[in-house]
UniProtKB/TrEMBL annotation:
Superkingdom field: Bacteria
InterPro entries: DUF2507, NO_sig/Golgi_transp_ligand-bd
Protein name: DUF2507 domain-containing protein
Amino acid sequence: MQKNNKHINEHVYFINQLYRDFLLPTILGDDDATILYWAGKRISRHYDLSSFDDIVSFFNTAEFGTLTKVKERRTSITFELSGQTVTDRINSDSREFSIEGGMIAEAVQKGIGKATESEITILDKEKKVQIVARFD
């Protein structure tokens, strides 16, 4: 069973890599980060993601990686995204995490009721992505 799950995970990663790291940037060109961010917000609305547990579950299902909440402040929440998929993407030529940033911004906005935008920082040494959701 373990070997079969590994094959499935590799297949899902390949599909994600194919569309996220090759097709979409080719189609969207220089505007890919902005468009993917807004697409992430739309995905979050479509799947009614409004809590941390919702977004964690979605990220696990979509093989986006493991999302953890690192810090919560009066005007921001800091998340980290990690795992093999994240490591592989950081090590690849495409290091785009705008979909995840948009999804988190929208879910936080819906959950707290305040306009929210997110900032994405790739932590190369740790092989993680930090996403800070900022709100008023």
